[in-house]
Structure formats: structure tokens, C-alpha cells
């Protein structure tokens, strides 16, 4: 069995290490903010050797990117409700829940930091960003295929995700009414 | 003459120190990102004593906030063109120029970092945010007084500023057409 197969075996040592390391990163980002801890501190908290972290992830930036993407995918999977309106509302509400949750701000700051933290950070951020935008575009394409309004993932980024991110960063509340209002502005049913 | 009067005397030692310290902060944020330098490093680069920085600004967070606010006010003063359309377009274009300029990304990251960097950072970010939102609301209120469309500063935050900030953070270009399009979406002349 090679390392890759072992990594994917549920409940195996590799999966356990992965979960411990992800948890350690999430806690450290939450406590100290991005950029204020080292691979050594992640490893110590996760109870693994530094070399295990470097062997598996290569760099702190790559690890941070994987943690952010895993959390986003787990907490805000792209919905498929059968209508664009349902998909947009479900997705917007899930993102709002996630970024206002216990370590939501840490996650937003991580995404922001990854997006502009030098060449390596940019690469990690780009991959994260491209993956999420691709998933979002697939959801919007399904609506277009059904004859509903054609939207671009960038429209959703600009007028649903960006306002929520900025409001959370500036300490404002996201009420369900506010989040629904963002969807209302963008989506014209029947258009 | 007390310290406060001296600080405001143009061309005096205090003004010179202020300019040197602001320049040092801008350079360090640009080179290393927010949070990766100390008051000591700012002071060394500005050629002043650490104690001068602490005496005048109290903390690194307060200094960073003042630098960000000064730059925003100098580079994007609120326009007063006589029409809401002119004001919004002028303001949006100025912000776009500023955040895509040589150290624009550093400024955006500083604003984001200040907004969520613990109790002291939050306070500094809050002051910066409240001051800018107040200026923006005054511009919008003038339009309302003229009988033009009534807009809230938060609408401009959500649908003009937030998309531009997020796009810059994710490395996307802001074309004049894109920026004008954001204004078009928000402002319905004659409304």
C-alpha cells in the first residue's frame, strides 16, 4: 500500500493525522490569526512530527489552503434544489452561517490572507478561489440549462459573497433578511 | 506651545517626524504585509526613537489606523460634483485607482487586518470605518437634499466598495467599465 492509498483509508493513521492537523490549524488561526504561527506549532499541537507535516503538505501555505477548502466544501457544499432561486438562497444562507460561526472570521481572514500573501500564498489562494468559483459556475450553469436566468459566478461573488465577507470583516451582523435581500437584488425570477 | 500645537505646525519637526513615520509604515506594510513588523522597525526606518512613536501614537494599531485613514482621505476625498451620478462615479474611480495603485493591496490588507485584529485592532478599524462611512453618508445626503435617489452608505459599501475590494484581494483587474458598471447597478438616475 502506498502513502496515497493509506491517506485515503478512512479511520487509518493518516486520516487521523490529517484530522488532528486540520483541527490544530483551525484553532491556531482562530486564536492568533493567519501568519502568526509556524509549522512547528501546528505539529506540536496536533501531536505529530514537523517532518510529517512538511512531507504531506510541503508548506504552511499549502496546508492552510487545504484546511480552508476542506472546511468550505464541508460546510457550504453547492446546493442542487432544482431552482436557481432555491440554490442561491440555500448557498447564501450556508455561507452566511459559516462565516458568522465560531471560527468564521478566522476562515474569512485566512481566505483574504491566502489571496495576497506573496507568490506562494497567491498560488494557494488562487487554487482555492478557482475551485470554489468552478463549483459555483456549475450550479449556475444547471439553472441556465433549465432555461432560468443566466448568471456568472462573478456576479454572485460581487453582489452576494463580497458584501457578506466585507460586513463580517467590519463586525456587522448578517441577518437572514439581509442575506435574502442580496439574493433578491441579483436574481430576477422569470428573467 | 504644547505638543498638540507643535504637531500641527506645518514644516515643523513634529510634522516631519509624522511624515517619516507614515512613509515607514507604508513601506513596511507593502514589503511584509500587516502584522509582520514592530514599532521598533518602524522607528528605525523612520530614523526616530521608539519612545517617540509610542508617545505620539500609543500603539502600532493606532498608528496603522492613522496611516490608513490619512492615505484614504488624501487619495479619495469625497467628491462634490453637484450630481449623485457624478459623485458616485468620481468616488468609485478614485477608490479603484487607489486600491490598484503601487501599494493599494497593502492598504486593502491593512484595512481588513485592522477590522479584525483583536480588541485593539477592532477599535482602530471601527474608527477608520465609521469616519469613512460618515463622509460617504454626507455625500449621499447632499444628493437626497437635492431630490435625487436616496442611498445608504451601506448600499455603496455592499455593491461598489465590497466587490472592488474582494476583486483586488483575489488578484483581478478593475477596468473603468467594470467600475462604472457597479455604479450603474446601484444608481438609477431619476429614481
TrEMBL record, chains A, B:
Recorded coiled-coil stretches: none
Keywords: DNA-binding, Plasmid, Transcription, Transcription regulation
DNA-binding region: 38-57
Listed GO MF terms: DNA-binding transcription factor activity; transcription cis-regulatory region binding
InterPro entries according to UniProt: Homeodomain-like_sf (IPR009057), HTH-type_TetR-like_transc_reg (IPR050109), HTH_TetR (IPR001647), Tet_transcr_reg_TetR-rel_C_sf (IPR036271), TetR_C (IPR011075)
Classification via PANTHER family: HTH-TYPE TRANSCRIPTIONAL REGULATOR RUTR, TETR-FAMILY TRANSCRIPTIONAL REGULATOR
Name of one Pfam family that matches: TetR_C_11
PROSITE patterns: HTH_TETR_2 (PS50977)
Protein name per Swiss-Prot or TrEMBL: TetR/AcrR family transcriptional regulator
Residue intervals of the HTH tetR-type domain: 15-75
Top-level taxon: Bacteria
Amino acid at each position: 500500500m502506498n502513502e496515497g492509498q493509506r491517506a485515503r483509508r478512512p479511520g487509518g493513521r493518516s486520516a487521523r493525522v490529517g484530522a488532528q492537523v486540520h483541527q490544530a490549524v483551525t484553532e491556531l488561526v482562530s486564536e492568533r490569526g493567519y501568519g502568526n504561527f509556524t509549522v512547528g506549532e501546528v505539529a506540536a499541537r496536533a501531536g505529530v512530527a514537523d517532518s510529517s507535516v512538511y512531507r504531506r503538505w510541503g508548506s504552511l501555505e499549502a496546508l492552510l489552503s487545504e484546511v480552508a477548502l476542506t472546511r468550505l466544501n464541508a460546510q457550504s457544499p453547492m446546493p442542487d434544489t432544482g431552482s436557481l432561486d432555491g440554490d442561491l438562497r440555500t448557498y447564501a444562507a450556508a455561507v452566511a452561517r459559516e462565516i458568522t460561526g465560531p471560527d468564521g472570521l478566522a476562515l474569512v481572514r485566512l481566505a483574504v490572507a491566502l489571496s495576497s500573501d506573496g507568490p506562494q500564498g497567491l498560488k494557494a489562494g488562487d487554487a482555492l478561489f478557482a475551485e470554489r468559483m468552478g463549483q459555483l459556475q456549475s450550479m449556475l450553469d444547471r439553472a441556465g440549462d433549465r432555461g432560468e436566468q443566466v448568471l456568472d459566478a462573478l456576479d454572485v461573488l460581487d453582489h452576494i459573497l463580497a458584501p457578506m465577507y466585507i460586513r463580517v470583516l467590519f463586525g456587522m451582523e448578517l441577518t437572514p433578511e439581509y442575506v435574502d435581500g442580496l439574493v433578491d437584488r441579483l436574481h430576477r425570477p422569470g428573467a
